[in-house]
Amino acid sequence: MKSRDYLIIFLCIVFAASMLVVANSQLGSIVSHRKDMKLISSAETLENAPPSIAFASVALGAFRGILVDVLWMRADNLKMQGQFFDAKQLAEWITILQPRFAEVWDFQAWNMAYNISVAMPATQPQERWRWVKNGIELLRDQAIVKNPKSISLYRSLGWIYFHKIGGVSDDVHKYYRLQLALAIKPLIDPQTNESYEKLAKAPKTWNQVISDPAVVKLVNALAQADPNMGKGEAIAANYLAVRAAPNQWPKAFEVVNRYRETTELETFDYFAKAHQLRAAWKLDPELMLELNRTYGPIDFTDPNLTRRLPLNWEHACVHSMYWGALGLKVAGKPGEYRGDEVNTDRIVFHSLQELFRTGKMVIYDTEMPIDINAIPLDQRTPDMPTTQLVKSIYLFPDLRMFDSYDRAMDAVVDKYIKLKDDPVSITNGQRNMLTNALVSFYQGGHRDYALKIYNKLRRLFPQRPEFRSDMVTFIRSQIKEELQSVTIHDAVEQIQGMLVDSYMNYALGNDDEASGREQMAREIYDVYQKEWVTEKVKRVDLPEFSMMRYLAIEAFLNDDMYPPNLRLNLIGRIKLEKPEMFKQLEIKANQLMQKEKEQQEREKAQNQGNIPDNQNTPVP
How far is residue 619 from each of residues 189, 299, 302, 603, measured CA to CA in Å? Predict the structure, then answer.
């Protein structure tokens, strides 16, 4: 071998050694970054893995990624073939092997909430709901816990609440909404600012709550009353069961009755509710209170329009907003543009938009036919009922949410302009939402507020020719356009707005105008029901028109933007002309009379100089 060959070999060895030294010097930095990004797995991740996966993972060592790639490709193929249950099993193995791989958690949750759920028949809504909940719980209870800095997981969880439960794409979406509302209601009632403040301040641990001797006495009394109450934190969970089903816990409920209106029962009650929110729902009462104060609906009884009421946590879109806001808070990177963060911002302001469009909720009983064919022959009787009462849910606009949406959208647009991004898609959505809000406020009789929105549209979009006409002309053109492509949300907004406007005119004595508005609302209702609702497709149907009329009256009477005397005029006319309806509204009438009396007293005091004009006097 020539000396030249030896020299080349020597230089190659030196070069290879130097590369090894350089690579080794970077190892510490790489490991540090992996720790920061939570990409390091431990032996604990293999504890529940099947033996074959555990063996392959250990045997392959550094080649574990190859195994994951193979499993991922196999799972993707199974999904394409519609074999969702098999794909779910493979996805579970991948999460065991690489728990920091956010995409596989996302895939598995989506698979359960969307693919597997709709594989269940629509006649079994409880089975569909079970799989939707499985998807939610996977992201909420496992994925986010293992990947707290992955903002995409917060966005995906928010999307399931927003789209799967809050949207109308699933045939049984009303069932989802109803189950969510009924499940969380016992933990948040009464929905007042004071109640949420007490939830946020409640003791966080069992040791903290039992540091009060009076609470210890209550807890001991509950435990002695029924052995099934358990011990420690189990007593808190079972206490909630006692409140929900007292007939099943008669002796424990006697203890609760004995302690009613005591400080110790209130302390323990708020602790139990807050503990359940944290443990089962993964909701932090302190963040819930913060969101109430930031995004809650405006209290129209406040003359300064600055006081906010609590959000309706029975609504799916409040939950989607919560997870979006939490993701931005925990995993957001201020000053840095990221696609995932943009999409998470969208979850927040789209949720606020939906709360404006569907934020008010009514749960009511409706009569439904019983499927006789589903009942065994030996169980049928001649006098058996042919109908049954089932709970249904109806959502309609909440104009009080507009200010929260408007402020949030302005902040998001400003955020991305500062990041040197042209938020054209966001501003297009803002323009559409402002247009919808303009029509809703106008139809609801709030002309001054509608004019403020129209002036803002003109200011933000001066180049748009449609905003050069007067407000009334623009609104008429919008209504005509919407009727040509009406959706359920458009229909509800149009019908509700026109009915409320009808009752306002009825209260003012403008009977012809009132009749015309109600007739127009009925025409929109009939057109929508004829075009979109069939015997097979009930997911986008509206309640009976009589129910919508009644809810519109309730909306008008509960709208504090209208003066009490105007609302009393409506009640007076209903009393004379529709006495049966008046009986249902009599309670509301008494409340309004009290408000009118208090308002007169305040005006009298102001005229005497005893109360400044801007004083915020509470109204019950």
Answer: 20, 11, 9, 14
The dihedral of CA 96, 97, 102, 104: what is its sign? Answer: negative
Q: Which two tokens stand for residue 201?
A: 């301040």
Instruction: Give the length of the chain.
Output: 620
**Angle (nearest 5°) at CA 8 between 2 and 10:** 105
d(CA 297, CA 310): 7
Eight-state DSSP code of residue 309 = P
Predicted TM-score (pTM) of the model is 0.78
CATH architecture designation of domain 46-171: Alpha Horseshoe (1.25)
Q: How does pLDDT run across 493-529, given as a tens digit for each residue?
A: 888 888 988 888 888 887 877 887 888 788 788 877 7
Crossing angle of the two packed helices 213-225 and 263-279, in degrees rounded to 10: 80
Q: Is 115:137 a contact under the CB 8 Å cutoff?
A: no
**Residues whose CB is less than 8 angstroms from the CB of residue 162 and which lie 6 or more positions away in sequence, other chains included:** 316, 317, 320, 347, 350, 351, 354
User: Read out DSSP for 458-476?
Assistant: HHH-TT-GGGGS-HHHHHH
Omega before residue 190 within 30° of 0, cis: yes
One-letter amino acid at 183 equals A
CA distances from 351 to 155, 269, 310, 360, 509 (A): 12, 30, 15, 14, 38
The strand pairing partners of 462, in sequence order, are none
User: Which residues, 6 or more positions from 578, have their beta carbon under 8 angstroms from its beta carbon?
Assistant: none
Amino acid in position 184: I
Tokens of 608: 């005497």
Task: Assess contact for 213 and 186: CB atoms under 8 A.
Answer: no
- Residue 533, CA distances (Å) to 450, 483, 493, 538, 540 in order: 32, 16, 17, 6, 7
Those residues whose C-beta lies under 8 Å from the C-beta of residue 72, and which sit 6 or more positions away, are 90, 94, 104
Of 215, 233, 231, nearest in space to 223 by CA: 231
Residue type at position 563:
P
Whether the CB-CB separation of 493 and 436 falls below 8 Å is answered with: yes
562-615 residue pLDDT tens: 778 888 888 888 888 888 777 776 766 566 566 666 656 655 655 544 433 333
Selection from 597, 591, 589, 599 nearest residue 620 by Cα: 591
3-state secondary structure of 384: coil
Q: Which helix (H) or strand (E) holds 387?
A: strand 387-396
Segment (H or E) for 72: helix 64-80
Helix-helix angle 564-577:545-557, to 10 degrees: 140
